Amino acid sequence: MKWIDIPPVWLIAFLAIAWLQAQALPLGLSLGEVLPDLVGGLLVGAGLLLMALAVYEMRRQRTTVIPHLEADRLVTTGIFSRTRNPIYAGDVLILLGFILTWDAILSLPLVPILLWTLERRFVIPEEDRLRRKFRADFARYAQKTRRWV
Questions:
Q1: 4, 40, 55, 87: which is deepest, by most CB within 10 A?
Q2: Angle at 43 between CA 78 and CA 109, to 5 degrees
Q3: How much is the CA Rg of the chain, to the nearest whole Å?
């Protein structure tokens, strides 16, 4: 069952809830036709870009992108020099973007809930493993690079 406990599954579940809310209880609180779609599209695009940059850098460094597996290297270059969790930040941006695009205003609380879920289920355990394996290197990295943004 551990194979299903990965961030994309959580993101898809949260997206499904937001979409269902938009379909079942549309409030019509949109900011117009164009603005939510534009902002939502930009957020989704930014999230995908963050993810792509992170996967590229992790592949370049020859380490795993799967959160429950042991990392072979501590990646601190590329997008990881700006944030320790670009893939998870991308997940949050994608959720927010789709919520805006779908006019799922009641689903906005899902954004901090997803952030909390990702942090508790993935970020903290992942950073604990990195801290144990890379000790001083991770301590220096965590001190100079923010967890999120």
A1: 87
A2: 115
A3: 17
How would you classify residue 103: left for phi > 0, otherwise alpha for psi between -120 and 50, otherwise beta? left
**E-strand stretches of the chain:** none
- Tell me the residue type at 143: Q
Nearest of 14, 35, 4, 30 to residue 95 by alpha carbon: 14
Residue 149 gets which letter from DSSP?
-
Tens digit of pLDDT per residue, the chain (149 long)? 566 889 999 999 999 999 999 999 987 666 677 888 899 999 999 999 999 999 999 999 999 999 888 999 999 999 999 999 999 999 999 999 999 999 998 999 999 999 999 999 999 999 999 999 999 999 999 999 999 98
What is the signed CA dihedral for 135, 139, 140, 143, rounded to 10 degrees?
A: 170
What is this structure's pTM?
0.94
**Is residue 134 within 8 Å of 76, Cβ to Cβ?**
no
| Residue 119 near residue 127 (C-beta atoms within 8 A) | no
